[in-house]
Design a protein that fits this description.
The complex is a heterodimer of chains A (266) and B (242).
Chain A lengths: L1 H15 L2 H24 L9 H29 L2 H6 L5 H34 L6 H10 L1 H17 L4 H16 L11 H6 L4 H12 L18 H32 L2
Helix pairs in contact in A: 1-5, 2-3, 2-5, 3-5, 3-7, 3-8, 3-10, 5-7, 6-10, 7-11, 10-11
Chain B lengths: L1 E12 L2 E12 L3 E5 L6 H9 L6 E6 L2 E2 L4 H7 E4 L11 H12 L3 H14 L15 H13 L5 E5 L7 H12 L6 E6 L2 H7 L2 E6 L2 E6 L1 H8 L4 H13 L1
Parallel strand pairs in B: 3-8, 3-9, 6-7, 7-8
Antiparallel strand pairs in B: 1-2, 1-4, 4-5, 9-10
């Protein structure tokens, strides 16, 4: 554990000292919360879509994709410099490397959750509207963790197979996909067949579960009064893509990292 | 005791043979040079000895530990400074050294002593609080070697330590490497003949994965009948091709 701890400390310092981390991991989600809250306040009929209870789980999921970008960049830079090669000649084991990259990103991800929730609360006080309880906030932090783990391990995966120039490009595709297909700011629940498609990926189900926790209200369709997000079949089935992608991302990341260690040896 | 011993060591990458029946013996305390043109097999040999790749055939050992079966024991007694810069760029010089010390030492006092030892040995005081990524190439290379020595290794691998450095930085690094003579065993690869000539006790000339010649610089010059080391090197490589 000593070597893992050393590598965790090193990676935390590398992340904290990178100004881009603050811009993407914290600044961007905070700006999005303000922007959509203002739209929700002043645009007609948008208050149900962009109210804090519906918005914050989406923003948290979206912010996690920037953690993926961070860890992908960190891993690929370490790989393309000789830093990892040198560490391969030390007594460090594969588990030390995996822990070293995942634990700092877990810390950053939980920090993002806390900041999104706290900032969303401040914004809700300014623009008005209901907010969820402290208990719901704690539950939300825990409920979104599987999505955070997916993003971290996808980041390790991309960082292990791509160089530091290609990794940002690929992760940008995932970031955009997560924003759209996760319903972070789009009322997917009013989009019929498109919503059904989005349930196949883990982004939307994790936001859906987050909205159950915050007690958000579904987008009004006009046909019937809007209902509160509840633990229905969408939520229950949503655990399947989350679990499948989580397991797949962990396995693929570890396999890619180990394979990468071997291919670096040539 | 032999620090490094290889017997018929062979490494193939697909159809390419990077090392071919390589036999080498490095004595404890020697500063041993590996010389050869690009693709001669220098880096492949070091990678096998560091556990970064496995031999296809033959045997290699480091202080009696086989690279096939005792790699974990080898990793505790070697230090490596690769060709490319291999320091954490956003960590300060001291944090880099502390990181590498923590990888090797469990005891806090041992870590502290190890870091202080290399700071003093490499005169790193003036850059201690600077981030590694902001250092000049020469200082980064100096830090890289210092980090490789934090674990107090019995054998140090220096792969092209002065590659890309200006003349002054190179000469400063030569002084650093010279100061290691007799204290630990050093295996150094280089393209620069004058570097090998200035630093190494003995030299192995590699050509197409084979050991073409071994000896001191003077012995190599004498055996090839050349006055300069550069002529001797060219003669040995050309002869090996015939």
């Amino acid at each position: 554990m000593r070597t893992a701890r050393a590598f965790i400390k090193r990676n935390i310092l590398e992340i904290l000292r990178d100004p881009l981390q603050y811009i993407f991991c914290l600044g961007f989600p905070v700006v999005m919360i303000v922007l959509f809250s203002v739209i929700g306040k002043y645009a007609d009929g948008m208050d149900d879509v962009f109210n804090a209870k519906a918005l914050i789980p989406g923003m948290i999921m979206f912010s996690f994709t920037f953690v993926m970008l961070s860890v992908a960049l960190l891993t690929s830079k370490d790989r393309t410099s000789a830093f990892l090669i040198r560490l391969y000649t030390s007594p460090m084991r594969t588990v030390d490397f995996v822990l070293g990259y995942t634990v700092p990103c877990l810390v950053v991800g939980v920090g993002q959750e806390i900041i999104c929730i706290a900032f969303g609360w401040i914004v809700s006080l300014i623009v008005g509207g209901a907010y969820f309880s402290f208990g719901a906030a704690l539950l939300l932090i825990v409920g979104m963790l599987p999505m955070l783990l997916i993003c971290i391990f996808l980041g390790v995966l991309f960082g292990s197979v791509l160089n530091d120039k290609a990794a940002p490009g690929i992760t940008s595709v995932i970031i955009s996909a997560a924003g759209i297909l996760g319903g972070a700011w789009m009322p997917l629940d009013a989009m019929g067949g498109f919503e059904t498609f989005c349930r196949v990926l883990p982004f939307y189900p994790s936001v859906y579960i987050g909205r159950i926790i915050t007690g958000a209200v579904h987008t009004p369709t006009g046909a019937e009064p809007p209902a509160v997000y509840a633990f229905d079949s969408v939520a229950a089935l949503g655990f399947i893509p989350i679990a499948v992608v989580l397991v797949a991302s962990v396995v693929l990341a570890v396999v890619a990292f180990r394979h990468n260690m071997k291919s670096d040896k040539k | 005791m032999l620090a490094v011993n290889t017997e018929k060591l062979t490494k193939k990458y697909g159809t390419v043979t990077a090392l071919n029946d390589c036999n080498l013996q490095v004595k404890e305390g020697e500063l041993y040079g590996l010389l050869g043109v690009n693709g001669a097999g220098k880096t492949t040999l070091i990678k096998i000895l560091c556990g970064l790749t496995s031999p296809t055939e033959g045997e290699a050992s480091v202080f009696g530990n086989s690279v096939r079966t005792d790699m974990s024991a080898i990793k505790r007694i070697i230090g490596v400074s690769p060709q490319e810069t291999s320091v954490a760029p956003k960590l300060t010089v001291k944090e880099n050294l502390q990181f590498f010390a923590e990888v090797y030492y469990g005891d806090k006092n041992e870590r502290k002593n190890a870091v202080e030892r290399v700071i003093s040995a490499f005169s790193l005081d003036e850059v201690l609080t600077r981030r590694a990524g902001t250092l000049s190439g020469g200082w980064q290379r100096r830090l890289s070697i210092a980090a490789a020595l934090v674990s107090d290794p019995k054998l140090l691998f220096l792969d092209e330590p002065t590659l890309g450095l200006d003349v002054l930085a190179r000469r400063e690094l030569w002084e650093v490497i010279s100061a290691l003579k007799g204290k630990i065993t050093v295996v150094l690869t280089s393209h620069y003949l004058e570097e090998i000539e200035a630093l190494c006790d003995r030299v192995a000339v590699l050509n197409k994965g084979r050991v073409a010649a071994v000896g001191t610089v003077e012995e190599l010059k004498a055996s090839s009948g050349q006055k300069s080391f550069e002529d001797a090197f060219v003669s040995i490589v050309k002869e090996a091709k015939i």
